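Re: the multi-chain job from yesterday

Posting the exact lines I submitted so nobody has to dig through the queue logs.
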Amino acid sequence: MLEIARLTKVFRQDADRREGGICVIDDVSFAVRQNQFVCLLGPSGCGKTTLLRMVAGLTRPDAGTIRIDGRAVDRPGPDRSLVFQNYGLLPWRTVLGNVEIGLEIRGMKRAERREICRRTIDRVGLSGFEDHYPHQLSGGMQQRTALARAFSKDPKLLLMDEPFAAVDMQTREMLQDELLKIWTAMRTTVLFVTHSIDEAIYLGDRVIVMAARPGRVKADVATEMPRPRSGADVKVSARFDALRKLIRGALAYDGAPELRVVAT
Amino acid sequence: MSVGDSPAAVRPLAHSLWPRLVPRLGSRDNLIRLASVAVTLAAWEWYGRGVDPVFLSYPTAIVAALPAMVASGELPAALLSSLQSLAAGLAAAIVLGTMLGLAMGRYRTADAAFTMQVSALYATPNVALIPLLILWFGLGLLSKIVIVFLAAVFPIVVNTYSGVRNVSRSLVEVALAEGANEPQVLAKIIVPASLPFIMTGIRLSMGRAVVGMVVAEMFTAVSGLGGAIVAYGNAFATAKLFVVIIVLAVLGVTLTETVRLAERRLAPWKETERAS
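And the result, structure tokens for all chains:
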């Protein structure tokens, strides 16, 4: 569904200079199946956010291609929704206003987009909060607003950029469960960026482990854990533990540029 | 028995008395404000009665001068004439100031092109430009409008500029990720996000606009409230002079407070963010 081939991105410190600069993504390739939940895991500086932004169409790659269902990506499109760090809710818009902004920018008529957005808001369980402002909502409700915005376009691919980076552990676990619940209901392909090993294992069907300087794929691990996954049981299971060890090993491993492991 | 006991015993009584004595004005701060104004007026009245009315008038005389000035039409006419140049100058300042601030905040080229001129004109005392403006625009209404405009426009430009600069990159990207074009980014993100700053700029410019208006009316063709000040001053009509001064004060405060109210209406999320 999503194919990334030989993707490379170089950030130049000096825009005028042709040579030099930091290679943030170096020759990255992988493919994602329909409805798969894929986590991009890596230390800061490994280019995982840059990779996500390139898939979103916000940043252009220097080399390589990104294809969605065979069509090359070169700009933002209605087939992808991006959920930002801290959700990117607009403080001057209500829940409804925040949810409908995507369709509004795409030029859909007010009545039509409102109907779609009310339905999406209902599906993420925010009915009755349409007229609330973001600051009046809890963290969980803000996430649901962001997801409702993302799903309002009925995207093929949901991109999430460390959405839980700024919240405490307990809230984070609650938000993860809520995300999984909504994802189970909505069913899309997800590319989820995180720097938490546990989060990646808990959420993903698959964890792509990246290394920094230059950013490249180190390991590609299938979690192969049954769903629905709920909280504590999963996180103390032998399987979870084995995956954690495996991914830790992959992150620490400093040898060959790429190690493709499929855990057993 | 400790020393702290006796004030604690007194306090409930004092607290229960305050609201009964001042059922409407309520807070202690308001009471202090009221008392302070009353004392000032009383002192002024007492002192003013002993001074030659050419040099200083006093509150009751000023109040007494008001009805005649309204009845003769001199005050309403002056106010109306002043409001014309004020309204036109302010309107132009709000429209052009916001546009220039948006352009400078959003586009590096506009920033580089206008930043020197804006800084220089903002720092220049407006009065210094009046002779030049008279040469260019004459003594009439147009000159006055330009002077009000120049007085009011810069706080709007500068605040709008900071507002645009303060819009977080991630909010802009929310629109970009939806495929927004530049006009959409401006309309849906930049303008609403910087609205609180724009409103602050407009509020700050209100006071300056009133000053500009009075100065203009004194230095160009003498007219309006500023002109009235000159005329009454020359005629030693000190009580009438004070009436005009008070009208100006009320005008400035009313305008500023109106904008403050609009600020709260238009950017309610800022208020609650501060409160929480």
